Amino acid sequence: MGCYDCCMRCLGGIPYCSLVATLLCFSGIALFCGCGHQALTETERLIETYFARNLQDYITLAYIIQYFQYVIYGLASFFFLYCIVLLAEGFYTTSAAKQTFGEFRSTMCGRCLSSSFIAVTYVLAVLWLLVFAFSALPVYFFYNMDVTCHTIDVLTETPASINQLCVDARQYGLLPWNAVPGKACGMTLSTVCKTREYRMTYDLYIAAFAGAGITLLALVHCSLYLAVNQMYLRKLRHREEERRGYDLYGRLQRDRGGTLWSPYPANMSDIS
């Protein structure tokens, strides 16, 4: 076998759909976990600097942020291992591997394992849909804040009651209702929106939201691919059983030294 044939043989055994899903999942999780972790840190800094003066007002928020950061560590580790396992499952069940390495073979354990991966991936996709929706909340908060700041900048040319335009962190549950000041209004809010910390936090949340969407897309793609591949393998198994039946029929013919005739008539009209 030449070098070209060997390379084509190796490339033919790669499960490209599983590979694409794995790369999407890796990139989405990296984007969500990395940007989400840093965005939570910057959010705590913004709340501490502009929306709360007393440590007791945002100490609960600080603990919640720390808790979510630990959850992010766990998610990154879990999906890193799970994507590797899914890629290995793709190599095991791909039809390209079947065509490359010989005739189809399947065991009951392998079929049960493949079905389990389909079910687990589907459940993860449903759960991650909730994470995707939850990651949209901070984007919504910062979007409202950005729109309010833009309105204040427009009204500065024609001064009006811009101090009535506020963003209250207490309304979003970030701070208790007795927090002081708990909100930023007017030119103070406009100044906050022009800071580097605000712009970076807003961009990080958008990137984390996009990462959650990419991960959801990868999980849906992977679950669909595994389901279709499982159906294809089941079809191959039926073909293999039919081929064995034909081989057995031919062997019986050779053993009898003639043709095996069916005891039943070929045409039902022949029955008198």
TrEMBL record:
<dbReference type="InterPro" id="IPR001614">
    <property type="entry name" value="Myelin_PLP"/>
</dbReference>
<feature type="transmembrane region" description="Helical">
    <location>
        <begin position="70"/>
        <end position="92"/>
    </location>
</feature>
<dbReference type="GO" id="GO:0019911">
    <property type="term" value="F:structural constituent of myelin sheath"/>
</dbReference>
<dbReference type="GO" id="GO:0022010">
    <property type="term" value="P:central nervous system myelination"/>
</dbReference>
<keyword id="KW-1133">Transmembrane helix</keyword>
<dbReference type="InterPro" id="IPR018237">
    <property type="entry name" value="Myelin_PLP_CS"/>
</dbReference>
<comment type="similarity">
    <text>Belongs to the myelin proteolipid protein family.</text>
</comment>
<keyword id="KW-0472">Membrane</keyword>
<dbReference type="Pfam" id="PF01275">
    <property type="entry name" value="Myelin_PLP"/>
</dbReference>
<dbReference type="GO" id="GO:0005886">
    <property type="term" value="C:plasma membrane"/>
</dbReference>
<dbReference type="GO" id="GO:0043209">
    <property type="term" value="C:myelin sheath"/>
</dbReference>
<protein>
    <recommendedName>
        <fullName>Proteolipid protein 1a</fullName>
    </recommendedName>
</protein>
<dbReference type="GO" id="GO:0061564">
    <property type="term" value="P:axon development"/>
</dbReference>
<feature type="transmembrane region" description="Helical">
    <location>
        <begin position="204"/>
        <end position="228"/>
    </location>
</feature>
<keyword id="KW-0812">Transmembrane</keyword>
<feature type="transmembrane region" description="Helical">
    <location>
        <begin position="113"/>
        <end position="137"/>
    </location>
</feature>
